[in-house]
Amino acid sequence: MDKMPKWADVILIPLISVILALLVSGLVVLYIGESPVEAMQIMVRGAMGSAYGWGYTLFYATNFIFTGLAVAVAFHARMFNIGGEGQAALGGLGVAIVCLSVPWPHWSLALLVACGAAAIFGAAWAAIPAYLQAKRGSHIVITTIMFNFIASALLVYLLVNVFRVPGSMAPETARFADAVHLPNAADIAPWLGFRSSTPLNISFLLALLACFLVWMLIWRTRLGYEIRAFGHSETAAVYAGINPVRIIMIAMLISGGLAGLMATNSVMGEAERLVIDNVQGAGFVGIAVALMGRSHPVGVFLAAILFGVLYQGGAELEFEMPAVSREMIVVIQALVILFTGALDNMVRMPMEKLFLSLRRRDRADSPAE
Amino acid sequence: DGPALVFDLGGKFDRSFNEAAFNGAQRWAEETGGEYREIELQSDAQREQALRRLAEAGSNPVVMAGFAFGSVLDTIAPDYPETTFVIIDSVVDQPNVQSIIFQEHEGSFLVGMLAGMASETGVVGFVGGMDIPLISRFGCGYAQGVVAANPDATVIANMTGTTPAAWNDPVRGGELTRGQIAQGADVVYAAAGGTGVGVLQTAADEGILSIGVDSNQNGIHPGQVLTSMLKRVDVAVYNAFTAGDEIETGVTVLGLAEDGVGYALDENNAELITPEMQEAVDAAREQIIAGEIVVHNFSDDGTCPVAMQ
Amino acid sequence: MDFLTILQILDSTVRLATPLLLACLAGLYSERAGIFDIGLEGKMLAAAFFSAAVAFTSGNVWVGLVAGIAASCVLSGIHGLASITFRGNQLISGVAINFLAAGMTVVIAQTWFQQGGRTPPLQGAARFQEITLPFADAMANVPIIGPIYSELISGHSILVYMALAIVPLTWWILFRTRFGLRLRAVGENPAAVDTAGISVMGARYAAVMICGVLCGLAGAYLATSLAAGFVKDMSAGRGFIALAALIFAKWRPWYALYACLLFGLLDAVGNRYQNIELVGVTIPVQFMQALPYILTVVILAGFVGKAIPPRAGGEPYVKER
Amino acid sequence: MTQASPAIELKGISKAFGPVQANKDISISVQPGTIHGIVGENGAGKSTLMSILYGFYKADAGEIFINGKLTPIPDSQAAISAGIGMVHQHFKLVENFTVVENVILGAEDGAMLQPSIAKARKLLTELAEEYGLNVDPDAVVEELSVGHQQRVEILKQLYRKADILILDEPTGVLTPAEADQLFRILGRLKEEGKTIILITHKLREIMEVTDTVSVMRRGQMTATVKTAETSPPELAEMMVGRKVLLRVDKKPANPGATILKVDDLKVRDGKGVERLKGISFHIRAGEILGIAGVAGNGQTELLEVLGGMRPAQSGTVILNNDQIDLTGKHSNGQTRRNRGIAHVPEDRQQEGLIMPYEAWENIAFGYHHDPKYQRNRLLMNNTAIRADTMAKMERYDVRPPNPRLPARNFSGGNQQKLVVAREMERNPDLLLIGQPTRGVDIGAIEFIHQQIIALRDQGKAILLVSVELDEILGLSDRIAVMFDGHFMGERLPDETDERELGLMMAGMTKGAA
Ligand SMILES: Nc1ncnc2c1ncn2[C@@H]1O[C@H](COP(=O)(O)OP(=O)(O)OP(=O)(O)O)[C@@H](O)[C@H]1O
Ligand SMILES: Nc1ncnc2c1ncn2[C@@H]1O[C@H](COP(=O)(O)OP(=O)(O)OP(=O)(O)O)[C@@H](O)[C@H]1O
Ligand SMILES: [Mg+2]
Ligand SMILES: [Mg+2]
C-alpha cells in the first residue's frame, strides 16, 4: 500500500521543493539588493516565455539529457560514473574527426556516422575504467575522475598540435563544412517562431529517442533486467547466472556512449567545431540530473529541462540584471539541487503524514469497512 | 544605442585580460558619462547568444574580449550589417568587424630583457596557464628578450594545467614558481590569469622578482614585481567605445609602435629598474619599432627560436 | 637528479599533499560513519574564502581559520541535515554543496570586497607563515640529515604539522577510543549501534562535523598559507582527488597519508618535469601533466586490490519504511 | 513490598507503519522469573511488539510498565537502563568487528577502549565458563558461524546485566544441539530470576521451555495461556485460524533411474580454503536426499557448485548421463537451469530474490531467457510474465496475490513461497533446495513441505539441505551427514534418530561414540 497518491509523489513534492529553493534563492537575490520577484519573472520569461528562450532551454536540456542518461544507466548497475565529462569530451573528438575528414554529401549521413563515432569514442573512454572495475576491482569513481583529467590533457594536446587551423590563435578545429550543418529548430519548425540562430537542433530529437531507448533497454529488455538485477544485488545476480564482468562492461560502455552522444548537440549542432573544454560541466550536471530524475528516463528528461530552464533563465537574468552575476545563477542551481534532490524528504515526510491522516479520516467517515 | 562589451569565460575580474577590458570601458564611462552594456559568459553556447542579443538590442559597437569569439563572430556578423563588432585577439574577415591584434611577443620581449638583466643567477622562469598558442606567444617573446639581454641565460617554462582550473589555481602557480626558484630562477613571468596571483605571491614570499601580465600588476607587491607586460586591452576598448558608430573596420595591429603593448614603470618598481636597464629596453623598443630587431612571433609557425626548459 | 632536487621535490610533495590529506581525513571521518561526501571540494572552497576574508578584515589568520572552519561546518551541517535528518541522497547533497560553495563564495566576495570575487592579498599576521623548527639553521650543514631536516622537515606552515599530527590522532581516535568504536560501528551497521542504546544521529552528526572542521583546515591552508588570499574556484578539483585518495587508502588513516603523499609526489614530479626529451623526441607537456593521473590508474589497477567501503555507507538509516 | 508485580506489563500498545497497522491495542503481562512464549504467523506483529518494548520503535499509543512502574521507553538506551535486553531476529552485530568490540559497543566504561576491552575479555571468559558460551573474544564476527554469532548476541545482553531478555526467533538458524544448549542457558537464567520472552515458530520449543504463551494474529493478541494447559495443535489453530498438519505425511519413495551422480567433488572458496574435500553421492528419480550438518561444513558450497554459482576445482558431476561443466565460461546458473536443475537457495533475501523487484520480476529471475517470457528477440513479454506470476501465486497461495508488489513487502514466508513457486514450477529433473523453511511460519512450512513431497512423487530428484533435523528426518528418503567438507555417512530416516545424526554432525562416527 502506498502512503501517498502517485501524483503527489511525482508532481506535488518536487513542485513544493522547487518553490522552496526559489524562495531561498529570492533571499540571496534580496541580499545583493535586487527584487526577487522581478528576477523570478525574468528567469521564467527568459527560459520559457518565447521561442527564443525555449530554443536555448531545450538546447541545454539536450546536453543534460545525454549526460543524465549516461549516469543513470551506470547507476542501474550500481556504478557511479563521474567520468561523463571526459567521455563527452572524447565524444566531441569523434564527432570532429567524422565531420572534418569526409566531405559529407548530406548532414543526415554525417549525423549517422557522427553519432556512431561519438558513442564509440565515449564508450572507449569508459571502457578502461569499466574493465579495471570488472577485473581488478579498481574503484570506478577514482578511475573515472582520473580519466576526466587525462581526457582534458589529451584534448588540449590534439587541439593545439593536431587540429588547430594553422595561423589561428584559438585551440579549436576548423569550422565544419556547411554540408554537415544540422537542421535547427528554425529549419524544422519555423512556424513555432524559432529564429535561424537558435542552437536547438535535431539532436534534441536524438535525446528524446535516447530517453525512449534507455527506457526500453532498462525496463523492457533482458539486458536491462540483468543490469538492474546486478545493481540491486550482485550475489543474487550470480545466482541467476548473470555474469558480473559482462554487465559492468556493457553498462559502462552504454553509459560512456550516451555521454559521448552529447557531442552531437554541442559540437555538431551548435559550435560546429571542436573547442577546448567543450563539455563545460555538463558531465557533472548530468550527475545531479540523474539523481534528481531517480535514474528514470522520464525523470532525467524532466530534471534536464529544469536545468535547461535554470541555465537559460539564469543567462537572461544575468543579461538583464547587471547586479546578478553568473555565480549567482550557480547558487540558484545549487539550491534547486539541494531542495529537490537532497532535502526532498523534508517536504515528503510531512506530506506523507498529511495524506495518511486524510485517508484515516476518510476511513473513519465511511464505516462500511 | 551605446556600446557593449562581452567578457570571455575567465570573467571580468580576472586581474588581467578581461579586467583590462573592463577598465577601459569604465574609463570611457567615467569620462563621457555614457552607459554601456556588458555580459559575462557562463558557457560556450552563450557566446553567440550574447552577441546576438546585444546586436539586436541596438548596441553599437559590440566589443568582445577573446580569441574564442572568432569563429562565432564570423558566422553572425553578416546577420547584423548595421552593427560594428570589435574582436580582440583574433582576426575575423567580415566587413563590419574590427579585429584587434596585439603583438604580445614584442611586449614580452621587453620584459624578457628586463628579466635577463635583473637576473643574477642567469635563470629566469615563465609560468603559463595552458599550453595554447596565445600563451606560447608570450613565452616565446619573453625568452627571446631574455636571451637578447643575457645570451647565457636559461629560461624555464611551465604550464599550469589542461582544465579550466588552470587559470584559477594560485596554489599550483605558487608551487611551479617554487620549483623554478629551486632550479635557480630569480625572475618569473606569469601569464596565467588567476593562477598568476599565486606566482607573484610566491615570488614575493621567496624574495625573487616577478613580472605581471596584461594589466599593470606592479602594485600587488610593491617593490617585488619587476614590471608588468602591458597589453593595452583597456585602450583598445576605450578607443572602440569612444569611436562609437564611426569605428573603422578591418584589422588593427597594436604593437610597440602603437603603444598597444609595453612594460610598466611606476613608483612601485622604480627602484628595481636601473637607468641602464631602462636605457637598454628603450633602445630595443626603438629598434623593434624600426624593424631592426625582429621578434619572432610563435603563432607564425608554431616554433620558437629560443629553447625553453 | 641530485640530492637537493629530490629534497625540493619532496618538499613540494609535502605542501601539495597537505590539503589533500586534510580533506582526505575529513572524508574518512564522514564516510567511516556511513555518510558519503563528495562535497569535500565545496567545503574546502568555502573555508578558503571565509578564512581569507576574515583573516584580511581582522588581520589575524587565526581568526580567519576559525571563520573558515565555521563556514565549512555550516556546509557540513547542511549535508548532515539532508543526509542524516532527512535521509536524503548523500551524493546529491554533496553535488549541491559543491555548486553552492562555488557560487556563494564569489557572490559574497564580490559584495564584500568588490574585487571580482577575490579577497585582497593577505599580508603579515593575516597569513600562516612558515615555521622554522629549532636548530634548522644550525643543522643545515650536517651532511644528509642536515638538509633533510632544514629543507624538508622544517619550514612549513603550522597547518602542515597539524595535518601530519592528525593522522596518528585519527588512528588513535578511531581504533582506541569509545567514540571511534561507535563511529566505525555506525558506518558498518547503524542498527547495531541503535540497539546498543547509542544515538545513530548523534554519532553521524559528530562525524560530519569533524569532517567540516578538517575541510576547514584544508581550505584555510590553501588560502592563507599556500596562497595569500582567495581566488574563485581555487580548490581546483583537490576535493575530488582527496576523495580518490580516500578510496585508494581504503578508508584507513595511515594509508590516507601514504595515498596523499603519493598523489602529492606525482603532482610535484609532474610540475617539475614538464619539458622532457626522450631520445630526441620532446614529450608533450600535456602528457607530463596527465602523467600523475595515468600513474594513479596504473597503481590502482596494479597494486591496490578491491576497496570495500563501510557497509552502511551512502545509505540513510531508516527504521520504519 | 507488595505482592510481586509483573516484570513486564504492556497496556494498549498500538503501532502503525504507514498504512500497515502492525500492532493493535495489545496488552500483555509477564511474571518475573518465567519464560513467556509468543507465537504467530509471519507478519503478525511479534517482532514489532518486542521492538517497541526494546525502544527500537516508538509506539503510537500505549504504556509500558517494568516491575510495576510506568517506564516510558523512547529509545533503546531507556530499555537498556530498565534492564531489558533483546536478541533480534536479524542479528544486530557489526560484522567486521571482533566479538569483544561488539560486546562492549554501547556499554563501554569510559572514553578509552582498552580498559573496557580488558574487562570485557575477562567477563567473557567467566560467562563462557558459567554458561558454556564459548566464543573467541578476538574473533571477527563475520567469520563466526551463525550459532556463534547468536552467542555473541546473548553475551552482549549478559554483559549488560539484562534482567529481562527478549529473544526473537533465536533458533531459526541453530542446529538442534545448539538450540538445546541455548535452552539450557535460558533455563539457568530463569533460575537466576531473569524474565525471558521467546518468539519462535517451533511449537515444540514452546512446549518444552515456556511457562506461558501468547498468540498473535494480524497485529492483535488473540490469547494468552499457560503452556501446560495447551497443545501444539491448539496453538497452531489459534495462530493460523485453521487446523494445521504438524507432521509430514508421505508415501514411501519409489526411486527410478539415477539422475545426479557426483564424484570426488573438491571446491575451494575465494580465500583458497578447501570447503569440499572429495564428495561423492548420487540421487535417483523420485527420491529426496537430505543433507544434514552444522552450517558452514560445506553444504552451502555444494549447493552453489551444483547451482553454477561457483566453480569446482576437481571432480565430476553427471546429470542424466551427461557430464556437467564445472569451470569456465559456461558454468553458470543459466546453463544449469537449461540442463534441468532448479535451485532454491539458502538465503532468499540475498540470493533468491531481488528485494526491490516486484513479484513478477522475481518470478522471471533466472528464467528471464525463457522463450515464453519473450516478446521478440529484444524485448521481454512483461504481460506474459505477470500472467504467469498470477497463476503461480494462486497455486502457491502467496499472499497478498499481487504481482506488482515488491518482494521486500512480502513477509518471509511469502517470499519463500515465491522462490519455491518459481523453481518448482519449472518441472526440473533435479531440485536443489536449501533451508526451505527458515523463519517461515507453521502454515507456510506445512505448505512448502507438501510441495516438496509432491515434486518427489512426480519422479524428480531432490537434494535437500537443512539445519532442521526435524525437516531432514521428515522429508528425506536417504540422509547424508556432512562434516568439514566430507560425508560422514548415509542413513535411512527410519533407521536413525536425531541423537545419532547429531553426533555425526559433530564429526563423530557411531563407532567412536
Ligand atoms: N520497519 C518496518 N517498516 C514498515 N513496516 C514494518 C516494518 N517492520 C514491520 N512492519 C510491518 O509490521 C507488521 C508486523 O511485522 P513483524 O515483523 O512485527 O511481524 P512478525 O510477527 O515478527 O513476523 P515474523 O514471524 O515473520 O517475524 C508487518 O506486517 C509489516 O507490515
Ligand atoms: N515497506 C513495507 N511497506 C508495506 N508493507 C510492508 C513493508 N514491509 C513489509 N510489509 C508487509 O509486511 C508483512 C510481513 O513483513 P515482515 O517484514 O514482517 O516479514 P517477516 O515475516 O518478518 O520476514 P522475516 O521472517 O524474514 O523476518 C507483509 O505482509 C508485507 O505486506
Ligand atoms: Mg519477527
Ligand atoms: Mg519480521
Can you tell me the CATH class of the largest domain in chain D?
A: Alpha Beta
The helix count of chain B comes to: 10
Low-confidence stretches of chain D: none
Number of helices of chain D: 17
List each distinct ligand once: adenosine-5'-triphosphate, magnesium ion
What's the structural blueprint in terms of helices and strands?
The complex is a heterotetramer of chains A (369), B (309), C (321) and D (513).
Chain A lengths: L5 H26 L4 H13 L2 H26 L7 H18 L5 H30 L3 H24 L21 H4 L14 H18 L1 H11 L1 H6 L4 H28 L10 H11 L4 H24 L5 H17 L1 H22 L4
Chain B lengths: L3 E4 L9 H16 L4 E4 L5 H11 L5 E4 L4 H7 L8 E4 L8 E6 L1 H15 L4 E6 L4 H17 L4 E6 L10 H13 L4 E5 L3 H12 L2 E6 L10 E7 L1 H11 L6 E5 L6 E3 L11 H16 L7 H4 L8
Parallel strand pairs in B: 1-2, 1-3, 3-4, 4-5, 5-11, 6-7, 6-8, 8-9, 9-10
Antiparallel strand pairs in B: 10-12
Chain C lengths: L2 H30 L7 H19 L2 H25 L4 H24 L16 E2 L4 H4 L5 H9 L2 E2 H19 L1 H11 L1 H6 L4 H27 L11 H11 L4 H20 L4 E2 L2 E2 L2 H19 L18
Antiparallel strand pairs in C: 1-2, 3-4
Helix pairs in contact in C: 1-6, 1-7, 1-10, 1-11, 1-12, 2-3, 2-4, 2-10, 2-11, 3-4, 3-10, 7-8, 7-12, 8-10, 11-12, 12-13
The structure holds adenosine-5'-triphosphate (2 copies) and magnesium ion (MG) (2 copies).
Tell me what you see in this structure.
The complex is a heterotetramer of chains A (369), B (309), C (321) and D (513). With 369 residues, chain A is mainly α. Chain A has a single domain, classed as ABC transporter involved in vitamin B12 uptake, BtuC (Orthogonal Bundle). Chain A contains 15 helices and no strands. Chain A has helices at residues 6-31, 36-48, 51-76, 84-101, 107-136, 140-163, 185-188, 203-220, 222-232, 234-239, 244-271, 282-292, 297-320, 326-342, 344-365. The two termini of chain A are 16 Å apart. In chain B, helix 1 (17-32) runs parallel beside helix 8, helix 4 (104-118) runs antiparallel to helix 9 and helix 6 crosses helix 7. Helices cover 39% and strands 19% of the residues of chain B. With 321 residues, chain C is an all-alpha fold. Chain C has one domain (3-303): ABC transporter involved in vitamin B12 uptake, BtuC. Chain C has 13 helices and four strands. Chain C has a two-stranded antiparallel sheet. In chain C, strands 3-4 form a two-stranded antiparallel sheet. Chain C is globular and about 65 Å long. The termini of chain C are far apart. Chain D is an alpha/beta fold and 513 residues long. Chain D has helices at residues 46-53, 76-81, 99-104, 113-131, 146-159, 176-191, 203-209, 232-240, 299-306, 333-338, 348-352, 359-363, 382-395, 412-424, 442-457, 469-475, 498-505, and strands at 8-17, 20-30, 35-40, 61-66, 69-70, 84-87, 164-168, 195-199, 212-217, 220-226, 258-268, 274-284, 287-292, 314-319, 322-323, 341-344, 430-434, 461-465, 478-483, 486-491. Chain D has a six-stranded mixed β-sheet with strand order 6-7-8-3-9-10, with helices on both faces. Chain D is globular, with a radius of gyration of 24 Å. Chains A and C meet through helix 5, helix 6, helix 12, helix 14 and helix 15 of A and helix 3, helix 4, helix 11 and helix 13 of C. Residues 46-47, 89, 168 of chain D line the site of one magnesium ion.
